[in-house]
Amino acid sequence: MKIKRQKQAKKTISFYKYNFSFREPFQILFDGTFCQAALKNKIQIKEQMPKYLMGEVQLCTTNCALKELETLGKELYGAKLILQRYQVRNCAHFKSPVPASECLLSMLGETNPHHYFVATQDHTLTAGLKKISGCPLFYIISNTIVLDKPSQVSLDQVQAVSLGELVSPAQQQSIRSLKEEQGIGQVDGERRGKKRRRKKSHPNPLSCLKKKKKGGPTPPRKKTEEGEKKRNRQKKQKTEEVPAPAKTNT
Questions:
Q1: Residue range of the domain that includes 105
Q2: Distance CA 201, CA 217 (A)
Q3: pLDDT one-digit tens code per residue, 7-65
Q4: Domain assignment of residue 43, yes or no
Q5: For residue 90, what is the domain's CATH number?
Q6: Helix, strand or coil for residue 48?
Q7: In the chain, fewer beta carbons within 10 Å around the N or the C end?
Q8: Which pTM does this prediction carry?
Q9: Which one-letter DSSP state was computed for residue 134?
Q10: Domain count along the chain
């Protein structure tokens, strides 16, 4: 039975890794009911959880879960000591604590974006967790820790993604990161709503140059006219100086 449980756990972990992008260190949220059951069954959570998940883990809880154990009295004092050793994650109920089941559900939201595992023995919390896609569930049965099979909601979502009807959470995250890099999204929508101010444009430096005046027909040079007159005069003088032929007596 132990080997069979390990094979089933390995199969379930790989399902969440490939379909919902779960990565090490695995984050596990605990409430007081799970710690109380582990204390009764003498289960060492810190030792067994890394072996069970075959990787590094982070054991976490919330302030509301600790406050709930304080109000329940001395019967759960041992569970409170165990839970106090874990990392306390910030929740939205710091000033006004709520029941642990309500707090853990609020930490997961609708899609479990932080990839939490949840360890609990609370039936009402378990019923709420099975309605959230991509939410692995731990519980204790027969003195052993058990990782529950993927819920029907998770299986339906994976099937819808494979058929192309939905976008997987990993793809959604990559799309968001690409939008942020390109400056597209809510910031871009805000920019579109606002009117853009036109920048002051400087005049074209070529347009500032003075236009060249178009010149008219160039007048004939005086030198050429004088030269032509001189040449004509010289020709006339030469023709006048030629002597007439002498008359011969016959």
A1: 19-151
A2: 41
A3: 888 999 999 999 999 999 999 999 999 999 999 999 999 999 999 999 999 999 999 99
A4: yes
A5: 3.40.50.1010
A6: helix
A7: C
A8: 0.66
A9: T
A10: 1
